[in-house]
Design brief:
Number of domains: 1
Largest sheet: 7 strands, antiparallel
CATH architecture: Sandwich
Number of helices: 0
CATH superfamily: Galactose-binding lectin
Radius of gyration: 15 Å
Structural class: mainly beta
CATH topology: Jelly Rolls
CATH class: Mainly Beta
Distance between the termini: 14 Å
Strand content: over 45%
């Protein structure tokens, strides 16, 4: 089951307070994921091994470069790719994790995912840790719990 919680401080990763349970078949839940915070606390609690479907839409901006949740690449930035938080993923790809852990999942524009831990879903735009000051906008991420196979 997916536990919906308060959104905390809207980006700095505040603690989530359980509010209500969202069961399989309930309506999808949408959150705005801001481009500037290092971590966006979503207030959504995910369960280990459960199946979730994600969709992300909208455009956020890296300095002057607009990007979808799937991110972007530029030849002139190849030298800096090694310093992205997830080097194997495009700049500004939507990435999520549980409890700010080491399992970093590239949600991009969506798909079906499972997580290896229980906890709060936290998300970010894939960028260099010291460069979030020039990020603007947000994407909308929708998640729903799927039937287990």
């Amino acid at each position: 089951m997916l536990v919906l919680s308060g959104c905390g401080d809207g980006g700095a990763g505040g603690e989530a307070t359980p509010a209500n349970l969202v069961e399989v078949g309930d309506q999808p839940i949408t959150r705005e994921i801001l481009a500037r915070p290092l971590w966006n606390g979503t207030g959504l609690m995910v369960r280990r091994g459960a199946h979730y479907h994600f969709q992300a839409s909208g455009t956020w901006t890296d300095f002057f470069i607009p990007a979808l949740a799937s991110g972007y690449s530029r030849d002139y930035l190849r030298w800096a790719e090694q310093w992205r938080r997830v080097p194997s993923q495009n700049w500004f790809t939507l990435i999520c994790s549980v409890n700010r852990g080491t399992e970093l999942v590239p949600i991009s524009t969506g798909g079906d995912f499972q997580f290896e831990a229980d906890g709060q879903l936290t998300c970010f735009a894939n960028d260099m840790s010291l460069m979030y000051w020039n990020n603007f906008g947000e994407v909308r991420m929708t998640v729903r719990r799927m039937h287990s196979n």
